[in-house]
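Appendix C reproduces, verbatim, an entry submitted by the partner laboratory led by Prof. M.T., so that reviewers can inspect both the input and the predicted structure.
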Amino acid sequence: MVERLSVALDEKTKDKLKKMMEMSKKSASEIVRELINLGYELMIYDVDLESLRVWIDYLAKRQHMILDIEHWRVIFSEIEKLNNENFWRIMEEIGLGHAKQYKLKGLDTVEKILKYVEKANWYEIKIENDKTYTLVLNDLKIKRFVKTFLEKVFEGQGIKARVEEGFGKLMVIKDS
């Protein structure tokens, strides 16, 4: 059984729907049904729109990849054993490169950068106050990796912040 539904659309939304119809060669009804199903899936998985936007940004341009947490842990277990200084020098260069990329995306404050990188599942942010953030790491072996990366991102943007180590966490403190 099919039920008809009337929906009021503003001009901007109507234009978007029209463009989607042209691009997909689907009817308005098909597109609306697909979007409702997608919205339903996102609600079930409790995915917020901001996370989805960041994941699309990470993955759609093929500059990042999905990696199982077990692979991640094995890789960092091996990196920890090697203690290769060349690896860490390259990591610093990567952090400086990301500083520029992030700046172009409008990620130009400690909080914006930390929240964006959090979506990669390296850590979970706990905001202590307007100057201090605790990063609870998903694995203790990535501490130096995350610290090195963030320090160089901040340095590359001229952001005055320091990253201090705790046992299973990092503290990011904005300097005044």
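The chain has two domains: 11-44, 49-174. Additional entries are available on request from the coordinating office.
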